[in-house]
Amino acid sequence: MEWIHPMPKIELHAHLNGSIRDSTLLELARVLGEKGVIVLSDVEDVIQKNDRSLAEVFKMFDLIHVITTDHQTVTRITREVVEDFALENVVYLELRTTPKRNDSIGMSKRSYMEAVIKGLRTINEVDVEFCTATNSRKLHNTCDGAGRKKIYIRLLLSIDRRETTESAMETVPRIGNVGVVGIDLSGNPLVGEWSTFLPALQFAKDNDLYITLHCGEVPNPKEIQAMLDFKPHRVGHACFFKDQDWEKLKSFRIPVEICLSSNIITKSISSIDIHHFADLYKAKHPLIICTDDFGVFSTSLSNEYSLAVRSFGLGKRETFALAKSAIEATFAEDEVKQQLGLIFDSASPEYV
Ligand code: 5GP
After folding, report:
1. Which of 22, 130, 5, 156 is closest to 81 using CA atoms?
2. List of E strands, the chain
3. Which is the closest atom of ligand 1 to the Cα of 61?
4. What values do phi and psi take at 3, rounded to 5?
5. Could you give the ipTM of this predicted complex?
6. Cα distance between residue 320 and residue 249, in whole Å
7. Which H/E stretch holds residue 276?
8. Per the domain annotation, does 2 fall within a domain?
9. Closest by CA position to 240, among listed 289, 275, 207, 281
10. Residue positions annotated with a catalytic role
11. How far does residue 340's CA lie from ligand 1's centre (Å)?
């Protein structure tokens, strides 16, 4: 399946800190280990473990955050994550991250986001197009020349389910915030109540931001129904949906971000052959193949497509059509959607 890597791809569900390279995580952990801030072997154990429950994944995020939450590191990992996606021919990326406040190092949610944006500015391996939803200000877009990869980036800000209503409100940007097109709700699904986050999500929606929700990662029928009634623009995972949830999702045509490896590794879905990808695909419901956390789950978007091809018997042409169909589910401006259409059209002779 060597044709998957060069195929243009769109990534809509990628968490910044979950997409950190193992090599970077280890390098940073060694430095903190020498300073006695962490125990290096803890990090090594965590990286080597390739089978972890959802609860263990969240413990791992706490460890990653201890290692990565300073401005310089946030800038570095943003640059690396974008470069990694672009090098495997991801042409449009919606990167999500939880703005963090850490008074002890002078970090506010705003300065965290400035560090992310600085990361985008410092990318020079690939060309980056990054702008706001309302004005097309390019950070840099040096050339379309031969051999250079080009990637469009838009940002989603995540609200962590551990946050209060007030803190969630602080995450929602006021109009005109650079490059932010939407808000995500994520974090440990066993923590927090939907009603806590609703004011911030409603405020975001009222201010023309797009909304995507981690929905149905654990069996919580009441919350799933409430989330669907909110009519988010996309949902992620949808592992524990019942018939009435599928009915509602389908009647509202809410696209689903599908993260195969993540769902299997965390045992949210017991086996790939019963994954809801198959039903949704057959029903021609909008779905997008995504990585979730390519560092934590040791995957890549090409790998996720290969897994779908192998598990559900997709052909080359169908896979290409699936990848292209993600354009409609992006939170990008119409002009960018048109450009993405052209990129896919020019690649299409290879995939007929
Ligand atoms: P960050 O927002 O710090 O850049 O990325 C890591 C965070 O994303 C985690 O702490 C967690 O809140 C969220 N996250 C990453 N993967 C998952 C997932 O599979 N499910 C949920 N609910 N949240 C996730």
Report:
1. 22
2. 9-15, 90-97, 127-130, 150-160, 180-186, 210-215, 234-237, 256-258, 287-289
3. 10
4. -75, -15
5. 0.99
6. 24
7. none
8. no
9. 275
10. 217
11. 27
Residue 3 lies in a domain: no
161 within ligand 1 shell (Cβ under 6 A): no
Residue whose CA is at the smallest distance from ligand 1 atom 8: 15
Does the beta carbon of 94 sit less than 6 angstroms from any atom of ligand 1?
A: no
CATH number at residue 240: 3.20.20.140
Ligand 1 lined by 13 (C-beta under 6 Å): no
pTM: 0.95
Written as tens digits, the pLDDT of the chain (352 aa) is 899 999 999 999 999 999 999 999 999 999 999 999 888 888 787 777 777 788 889 988 999 999 998 999 999 999 999 999 999 999 999 999 999 999 999 999 999 999 999 999 999 999 999 874 444 445 454 444 457 899 999 999 999 999 999 999 999 986 556 789 999 999 999 999 999 999 999 999 999 999 999 999 999 999 999 999 999 999 999 999 999 999 999 999 999 999 999 999 999 999 999 999 999 999 999 999 999 999 999 999 999 999 999 999 999 999 999 999 999 999 999 999 999 999 999 999 999 8
Range(s) of the domain holding residue 40: 9-351
Looking only at the bridges linking them, the beta strands covering 9-15 and 90-97 are parallel
SS3 content of the chain, % helix, strand, coil (to 5): 50, 15, 35
**158 in contact with ligand 1, CB cutoff 6 A:** yes
In the chain, the number of structural domains is: 1
In 195-321, beta strands by DSSP E: 210-215, 234-237, 256-258, 287-289
